[in-house]
# Entry
Amino acid sequence: MDFAITSEQQALLDMAADFAKNEIAPHVEQFERDERFPRELAARMGKLGLLGGTIPEEYGGLGLDHVTLSLLLEEIAYVDITAAVIAGWPSCSLGRPILLYGSDEQKQRYLTPLCQGKIFGAHAVTEPHSGTDIVRRLETTVRRDGGHYVLNGTKTWISNAGNADFFLTYGTLDKSLGMRGICAFIVDAGTPGLAITPIRNKTGSRGQDTAQLFFEDLRVPAGNRLLPEGQGYKSLMCGTEIGRLACSARATGQIRACLDAAVSYAQQREVFGQPIGRYELVQAKIANMRVGLETSRLLVRRLAWLLDQGAERAQKEASIAKLHTTDTLMQCAQDAYQIHGAYGVAEEYKVGRYFRDAKVMQIYDGANEMHQQIIGEWELGYRRQPDQARAGPLTANKESTP
# Structure
């Protein structure tokens, strides 16, 4: 691997850093209060190319490699996690399925304007009784009715739902079919039978709206289906590793933000006649934060490099990166908060927000306990590539394991 940053990459990062500092940073507290990311800001990000990510230029993207994408998301997340989430969506679980499996009409209608910031979308997967085990416990039903499909069910914890112009969602033709009964659909906002209930006052991730979706005899045109009937599982899983790369890159950006905030405060705050940075216990926390930042960057860069080499699935490496970076972020946020003392709770300091968001990062894109299990199963030989899978206690249903 070559760790050098090219002049083209540096130019993109400099532009992203400048935009984040001048256009995003002054308004983050407002995002938090409103619990919504402004569409007009996303549109400005789109004009600069900050949303295009790995999507080819013909569909409004930048055609970036995964290493560059991870660097870009880290830079934006240094200022604001929510803005980095918006920047990563077209490349991950929302845009990638449309790129891989959508028709030309679907790509032009949804993917291109998504990359340009002209429309918003949301990935509606999680249900009230299922998250990590969505494949086995998918409750949303699908039935064919002439030229339409009729969906009934509930989705929850759907990010950006209240802001979305469309939803990429999933239902099952028959639960007994497991993964082979799953269908994927693009649902336009405002479709009769779709109701949205906001989830307010979240502990973290407050900068983006979150909601429940209710499908009641929701009729979706057959032309809005992705993939043939029963093959929606491909759409569901195709952005998994890239999504975890994006999550890990965002966590790394926030680790850097925690470190910088802690260093700045430790240099200025005086106790017993000297800056608290002179005390060994504070130095130890800051040293550990620096080590956490460097190890996180290495894991993210390696995962991105593997994906750029054509690795279609890098499950173990994605889980390692996601687990390490988000656990490290939680510890760094806690240490930065502790270094700030009572001032950590004050809104004028950012470490309170970093702390709240860090907890959320350990949960979404797969709870970290799940990633521990994935890593353990790979190490013990219970997981294989699809063509090598063997039935056993943990592999009998391997195809339906996220």
Summary: The chain is about 50% helix and 15% strand. Residues 121-236 form a domain with the Butyryl-CoA Dehydrogenase, subunit A; domain 2 fold (CATH 2.40.110.10).
